[in-house]
Design brief:
This protein is 34% helix and 18% strand. With 421 residues, the chain is an alpha/beta fold. Helix 1 runs parallel beside helix 12.
Length: 421
């Protein structure tokens, strides 16, 4: 029986655990070497596939591949490039067929969020539209936790843990200095349209007066007067006020408070930092001394404090993707299914890619308190299992040890150069 090769690629914003998914894909492929030949990786996502910039993962040791499980960011590079439709951008798909054919690739695994699953779905259509037999499986990943159908998105649990830990520690710092110094601290976190990451900060508040005192969500338009009143109440009651704010907070008209007027490669509006806007609002109206911090890349790169549950999820969906492909499935994405039980139990399910692509799962209103400034017990019940457990990397000289792969390029077989537009 002829064996064909597989291609894996990472897409979109990376996470603390996306390499755990890569580890799951590569290790499972190696265990099935009687069915799949080599497992290549595309350098910088779908761009590497289009430009024939492939990496031979077979040249990496088993130990280095295993170490991916403990290494943050994207080991093979990522991109923000969205394929157009086959009807309007046929040349892109014909190029993919050329690359796949030249390197005997019949399996394609694309690891990313909603936009990336759209790309995965389009690639899966190559068999029907262009007659080239390709099996395409999407692998879920996004810190935003906004993929539909899956209970949670791999990458989110670790960001949630980081944010909850950070606001707890920063809140204690502010509380100790509040008498004569800073009275308001604002932590800005990611979340363009969905407030899951901001909500995770609420896990830190276990007792009356604990930080954060206020959470601002994209799902709840900012009521300036009510917000300022709440800040003032907190300072009077607790001597300080700690706030977690999502980057996607909007005003009453539905406009992003921090919009810059720019868009990224996926067509999303670029946001310029909402924390200083909120800080200025407080200073001008209440006069309190403040500090603000932007979690930015720190929140999604913090593998040193990753959630063990999240790591296990990430590895499992990578492993499942290969198993699904070998079972003859196509155009599907493995998902995490939460079982009905008193303790957190989960399993792997699947969903068609066409149902996932470009769909955002926002926070249910019942997860946000009636006043719009906190999370409910139902939300805590959902979030809490996702941050459980520690899965520390090895430390050396006081620092975590992360693997850096050789990423040896595969020899190009095509004479033509493809330009990305």
């Amino acid at each position: 029986m002829e064996k064909f090769n597989a291609l894996y690629a990472q897409s979109g914003g990376v996470t603390a655990v996306i390499n755990a998914s890569a580890c799951g894909v590569i290790e499972t492929t190696r265990k099935n070497s009687d069915k799949i030949g080599k497992i290549y990786a595309a350098r910088n996502g779908i761009i590497g596939a289009l430009t024939e910039d492939l990496i031979d993962t077979s040249l990496e040791s088993d130990a280095d591949i295993a170490a991916l499980r403990y290494t943050p960011s994207g080991a093979f590079g990522s991109c923000r490039h969205k394929l157009g439709s086959i009807e309007k951008h046929r040349k892109q798909y014909e190029r993919l067929v050329e690359v796949f054919s030249a390197h005997h690739i019949r399996y394609f695994f694309y690891n990313g969020g909603g936009d990336s699953q759209d790309t995965a779905h389009k690639v899966s259509q190559i068999s029907k539209e262009l007659g080239y037999p390709i099996t395409c499986i999407g692998i879920p990943k996004t810190v935003d936790n906004d993929l539909p159908f899956t209970d949670n998105s791999p990458g989110f649990g670790s960001v949630a843990k980081y944010v909850a830990v950070s606001i707890r520690e920063a809140g204690m710092d502010v509380a100790s200095m509040a008498l004569t110094s800073t009275k308001v601290f604002i932590l800005e976190v990611m979340g363009r349209h969905a407030g899951w990451i901001a909500a995770a900060g609420g896990l830190a508040a276990e007792q009356e007066g604990d930080s954060p005192h206020i959470i601002l969500f994209p799902e709840i338009p900012l009521n300036t007067a009510a917000f300022l009143n709440r800040v003032e109440e907190c300072v009077k009651k607790y001597a300080h006020c700690s706030i977690v704010v999502s980057e996607g907070v909007k005003n009453a008209e539905g406009n992003f408070i921090s919009e810059q007027g720019l868009v990224d490669a996926f067509g999303h509006k670029q946001l310029g930092g909402v924390a200083p806007v909120i800080a200025k609002l407080i200073k001008e109206n209440l006069g309190y001394k403040y500090h603000w911090a932007l979690a930015d890349y720190l929140q999604r790169a913090a593998r040193h404090i990753a959630s063990k549950t999240d790591v296990e999820h990430a590895y499992a969906v990578g492993k499942a993707a290969v198993e699904m492909a070998l079972a003859g499935k196509n155009a599907v994405m493995p998902i995490i299914v939460r079982e009905k039980s008193d303790t957190y139990r989960w399993s792997i399910g699947e969903v068609p890619l066409d149902k996932v692509a470009n769909v955002e799962m926002k926070m249910p209103r019942e997860y946000i308190t009636e006043d719009g400034f906190g999370i409910t017990e139902a939300c805590k019940h959902y979030l809490s299992p996702l941050i459980q457990g520690e899965d520390y990397p090895t430390y050396q000289h006081g620092l975590p040890v992360y693997v850096k792969l050789k990423n040896t390029p595969v020899e190009k077989k095509l004479n033509t150069i493809f330009e990305i537009v």
